[in-house]
């Protein structure tokens, strides 16, 4: 009986020692899972400020966009300036065409009137100083003056280069005659007057030109 009473209190002590030993073994540190390690490495790489590829891609995209927009802006400015210049040139050409049309609208009509002026001048030359037909001559002179005044108001100018150097731009040489009293290539006589309208030649003068005596 004593032996049983002595060993009975020892059982709880033994069980407590065993449980303490199991707890000690259970709290020993273990290696972390592979997934945790991989997640930590990814986070470390993302926090790394020296990641050059990310930094380059983050800076080059805005720069490329800015350069593209600047190029498009420059192209748009050039197109606008070109369109403005074309508009100004078109307006100037239109104004010039209108001015030419205004100045030379009567060109054909005046060309039809020039033979009338020529006939009146021939009539005066044929009449000469005949006193018997003095009234007729005066009438022809007044008619010729009215014609020439109307033509002058419209910008018509007569070309009568007698005694002047021959100008092939405004005169047409019908013949050449020897004349010792004049310089060579000088208009000796005008067979038919020339006319120009606002500086544009309507008809060249038909003239005789001098040449050196042989």
TrEMBL record:
GO cellular component, one term: cytosol
Compartment(s) of residence: Cytoplasm
InterPro entries: GrpE, GrpE_CC, GrpE_head
Top-rank taxon: Bacteria
Region (Disordered) location: 18-63
Keyword Transferase: no
Main localisation: cytoplasm
GO biological process, one term: protein folding
Keywords assigned by UniProt, alphabetized: Chaperone, Cytoplasm, Stress response
GO molecular function: adenyl-nucleotide exchange factor activity; protein homodimerization activity; protein-folding chaperone binding; unfolded protein binding
Quaternary state and interactors: Homodimer.
Similarity comment text for this entry: Belongs to the GrpE family.
Name by which UniProt lists this protein: Protein GrpE
Gene name in the database record: grpE
